[in-house]
Amino acid sequence: MSNNFFLKFWYKLFNKNKYQELKNEIRTKNKLKYYNSKIFNQILTIEKNIKHKKELTFLHSGQLGDLVYSLATIKELSKDHKCKLYIQINKPMPDEYNSLKKFFISKRSGDLILPLLKKQSFLDSVNIYDGEKIDINLDLFREIPINLSFYSTRWFSHLAGINLDVNDTFLSTKPHNSIKNKIVIHRSPRYRNAYINYEFLRNKENLLCIGLEKEYHELKKEVKSLEFHDCKDFLEMAEIIKASKFYIGNMSFQYIIAEGLKVPRLLEASPDFPIVFPVGSNAYDSYHQNHFENFFNALEKI
User: Fold this and answer.
1) Would 5 be classed as within a structural domain?
2) Residue 171 lies in a domain
3) Which strands sit side by side in the sheet containing 183-186, from one edge to the other?
4) Angle at 82 between CA 78 and CA 87, to 5 degrees
5) Of 174, 175, 211, which Cα lies nearest the Cα of 192?
């Protein structure tokens, strides 16, 4: 250890390239040590459970978007397993997440998402976690020392060692009974693209916001004709998106619902955190204003 310290110090002063190489080598060794001692046996256990059990229990503590993306993996495994999902509520959010939220999934958020999860036919049951024995802990993806800047559904398929057709839906719901054929919009304060604005929609009609009311009022400054609906839960939110003409917005829980349902959609792509992108037909993303407007016009013509 002391030899490494003095060698690093020497290289830092006199050989910057060697210093960087040594830092990378030490970092890789530490990651490998952690992976072999803390992670790999859990991956082997998951593989064993999938191979030998016909009924699988899953645990997820959120965040909500991550939870929805994990459904693609559960849906694939449900083809030859009975799948039971448990949601852990009030798991504290670590300080390093720099989030204003106290929990990954609060009790209120759990109550809002349960009606949507219970409608998924590939889930045999969905319940709040209360110490049940778990076969596949989906939260493990956060502990693996890898860069998560790849398509989010694969965070979970790599845990299970399965291949997904990411063109497939991983959510289902009936269309809303009365709110139909709207252009549904949501713009979260996070993951915005500074190069894009919504002012071109100023005089458009048939636009509906389904986010928080404060998000609606902020967006209405740009989009005067925007209407608002306060969804009673996330099942109603999914029904409205399912019944929409198409969906437009930045990366958010609402967008992930649109992606799961594979409705026509346009994503305001994040230059800073590009882990989400549309997959499938009538699905667009854009980093530039002119393309954003062109894709909106293309979806209007469907």
Assistant:
1) no
2) no
3) 227-228, 207-209, 183-186, 246-250, 265-268, 283-286
4) 90
5) 211
Q: Is residue 188 part of a domain?
A: yes
Q: What is the CATH number of the domain that holds 276?
A: 3.40.50.2000
Query: Which of 160, 191, 208 lies at the terminal end of a domain, its last residue?
Result: 160
Task: Give the residue from 128, 160, 192 where a domain finishes.
Answer: 160
* Residue owning tokens 């976690």: 129
| Distance in angstroms (rounded) separating the CA atoms of residues 74 and 122 | 8
* 155-184 pLDDT, tens digit each: 999 999 999 998 999 999 999 999 999 999
Domain co-membership, 78 together with 153: yes
pLDDT digits (tens, 9 = 90+) for 88-112: 999 988 876 666 778 889 999 999 9
Q: Give me 115's structure tokens.
A: 């009606």
Contact criterion met (CB below 8 Å) for 240 and 176:
yes
- Global pTM reads 0.89
* 50, 81, 184, 283, 299 from 225: Cα distances, Å: 51, 48, 13, 24, 19
Q: What is d(CA 18, CA 78) in angstroms, rounded to the nearest whole number?
A: 50
pLDDT tens-place string over residues 245-284:
999 999 999 999 999 999 999 999 998 877 788 999 999 9
Full residue range of the structural domain in which residue 288 is found: 183-300
Question: Cα dist. 129→30, 125, 297 in Å?
Answer: 33, 12, 45
Residue 109: exposure state from Cβ atoms within 10 A (0-12, 13-18, ≥19) = buried
Number of domains in the chain: 2
* Residue 79 counted as domain residue: yes
